[in-house]
């Protein structure tokens, strides 16, 4: 009996996405091995963080790097770094008296890029200044929003957030003319692997990635890369220091696990993975399109605007099957299969996280669900 069986917790087939609510992703074997090694030794955590972060910086072609506990923690540490720099006196006053001691505590963000993750900046006392509207943002709006109270500009990467927003290059140019750093949240923007260095090459001052998504690292890990001075400021706020970032403590297991994840990811054959996903999607589309009342098509880009395909499966009126109903029916079976709602009467099928043989399970379940509905 597995530990999940003992607890009465169902294991899922993940045809949805790399979602925190589904456990992120499955760690690669080198990551598991590295975490087991880390768990068996005491170390100086400052020394380990410096060594791991230095190695990761070299691997990702960045000036500096820092391992944190997920991209959201990276947002918190990055915003603190931009607000205080490496000024220990200011950091101390912030801890003792709160954010009112800070002259710079505003971060500019485009309306079209607002999302459920940006409120974490409120933990630092930062204030968000929204510019533009859902349809468009003009350069002059960013220029006008930057004042002597601006600590930085937030930019959320991904094609799913690009409509109506200024591009990164233009944002960087305007911010840097005003002497303001740009933080890029690229949590899910792998592949391509080049994003690990391309975003900083384009001028981003700090870039954040999730460790528990495409890197296949520990779910509670993340990576900040960028300017050395700002990375050093991130470190000054973070655990094991007894400062505001202490609550976001990264363990020795996550540090070595993330290093192994980055090393593994940079050696991975991205083209072969993309081809595998294309084959699975093509098979799903071909098989499901022959079912009366069902339309299946290739959808691209995939989740979070990533450059991988998925299938969108739509149900017409004769089936009276909603997207939510199909999602729930897929979860109710054995094994439980997680899929995403794609619309009022559609679901997404994502092949990326499936283990060998699971693509057939997903296909069989969709067919079974539609036949059950058709029979009434």
Account of the 3D structure:
By secondary structure, the protein is α/β, with parallel strands linked by helices. It has two domains: 3-20 and 270-375, Aspartate Aminotransferase, domain 1 (Alpha-Beta Complex); 43-267, Type I PLP-dependent aspartate aminotransferase-like (Major domain) (Aspartate Aminotransferase, domain 2), CATH 3.40.640. Helices cover 40% and strands 16% of the residues. The protein has 13 helices and 13 strands. The protein has helices at residues 3-7, 29-39, 45-59, 71-84, 88-97, 139-145, 168-177, 195-201, 228-237, 252-267, 270-288, 323-332, 358-375, and strands spanning 12-14, 64-68, 106-110, 127-131, 150-156, 182-185, 206-210, 222-226, 294-299, 310-315, 336-338, 340-343, 346-349. It has a seven-stranded mixed beta sheet with strand order 2-8-7-6-5-3-4, with helices on both faces. The chain has a four-stranded antiparallel beta sheet with strand order 9-10-13-12. It is globular. The mean pLDDT is 95.
Question: SSE layout and pairings?
Answer:
Blueprint: H1 3-7, E1 12-14, H2 29-39, H3 45-59, E2 64-68, H4 71-84, H5 88-97, E3 106-110, E4 127-131, H6 139-145, E5 150-156, H7 168-177, E6 182-185, H8 195-201, E7 206-210, E8 222-226, H9 228-237, H10 252-267, H11 270-288, E9 294-299, E10 310-315, H12 323-332, E11 336-338, E12 340-343, E13 346-349, H13 358-375
Parallel strand pairs: 1-11, 3-4, 3-5, 5-6, 6-7
Antiparallel strand pairs: 2-8, 7-8, 9-10, 10-13, 12-13
Helix pairs in contact: 2-10, 3-10, 4-9, 11-13
Strand content: 15-25%
Termini distance?
Answer: 37 Å
Number of strand segments: 13
Second CATH tier, the architecture of the largest domain: 3-Layer(aba) Sandwich
By CATH, the topology of the largest domain is: Aspartate Aminotransferase, domain 2
Poorly predicted segments: none
Secondary structure category: alpha/beta
Number of domains: 2
The top level CATH class name of the largest domain: Alpha Beta
CATH superfamily of the largest domain: Type I PLP-dependent aspartate aminotransferase-like (Major domain)
Major β-sheet annotation = 7 strands, mixed
Across the major sheet, the strand order is 2-8-7-6-5-3-4
Helix content: 40-55%
Over all CA atoms, what is the radius of gyration?
A: 22 Å
Q: What is the H-and-E element order?
A: HEHHEHHEEHEHEHEEHHHEEHEEEH
The overall pLDDT average reads: 95
- Helix count, per DSSP? 13
What is the global morphology? globular
